[in-house]
Amino acid sequence: MTATARAGFSLDDKWLVGLEVHGPDSQAVWLYYVVDQASDAIDAIRLALRRANSTQERRDRGGTVVRPERFEVQRIYLDASGRLRLVRCC
User: Fold this and answer.
1) Which of 3, 38, 55, 68 could bridge 82 with an S-S bond, Cβ 3.0-4.6 Å?
2) Would you give the DSSP letter of residue 65?
């Protein structure tokens, strides 16, 4: 059994996407989403934005729409020793 199988999930096409937004007080806040099945970094951003602006997420934030000023995209890898690693993409 592989480490991935023991962990109970696959790391194929998993990405960590950070979206920088500004709150009502103009303070920068980063929202992070783990997305899967993205074909590339741009697709990962698109999927994260879709989730960030979903009905449930918007309701949780008081109805505000996410319009990020910056993005941070990292691939999630399982290394040979079974540790999760983040590799910056852009």
Assistant:
1) 3
2) P
User: Which strand ranges, in their side-by-side order, compose the sheet holding 14-22?
Assistant: 28-36, 14-22, 70-78, 84-88
Domain ranges of the chain: 3-88
89 Cβ contact partners less than 8 Å away, ≥ 6 residues apart:
15, 41, 73, 74, 75
The rounded distance, in Å, linking the Cα atoms of 73 and 64 is 23
pTM beyond cutoff 0.90:
no
Please name the amino acid found at residue 54.
S
With a CB cutoff of 8 Å and minimum separation 6, the contacts of 46 are 38
CB 61 within 8 A of CB 80: no
Q: How far apart are CA 64 and CA 53, in angstroms?
A: 8
Q: Terminal CA-to-CA distance of the chain, rounded, Å?
A: 33
